[in-house]
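Exercise 7.
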Amino acid sequence: MAGEARAFRVLFPQRHIPIILISILQAGENLRKKTASDLEDWISRRIYWRLIRIYPFRDGPLDIRLQPEIVSVDSDENAPAGKIDFVVSCGLGAEIYFAIEAKRLRVRSPSGKMNAGNDDYVNNGMMRFVTGQYAPFMKNGAMLGYVYDGDTKKACSGVAGYIKNRAKELKLTSPKQLTRASILPDKPIYETRHGLKKRSFLIYHIFLAV
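Solution. The predicted structure, written as tokens, is:
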């Protein structure tokens, strides 16, 4: 058990994170939905197809998987803890990974009604990092918003407002809001900081017009 505890102190290397985030921006450039009602999974498959054909996923050292099962922290559990859209590993073990969860934003129904998607993004996306369902031993992860009407500024603003209203539940720490990511300040990437029970956690946010 002591050996396991030591292994779980290993974190996903910080040096890989900027490369992953920039690769997502590159793969998402000019990515477009085929219909107004495309499912989230369809968009994820298309961006995955692009990602595995660019460095560093094509040649290594990083490996990206599409919608793998997340193993429960309870060894007696008969069901997985869930599935996450993308998991990036780097050869340091099964529990050492960078997780990315994707959600649809600003989807218009056939009747013309706009669904901002903020509730799903926060409560069924970000909260799964906060509760430890995703990346329970890591300190970083990412959210990927597919913006269906293409208005990434409105999508970002809407998510930011929803996050601010859920600051307590999300366990936000200073500055307690969505801000530009300090790791890549010149890119359209954002971050939120969270104080969890035994660790701090940082979620990166990318909004792609599809």
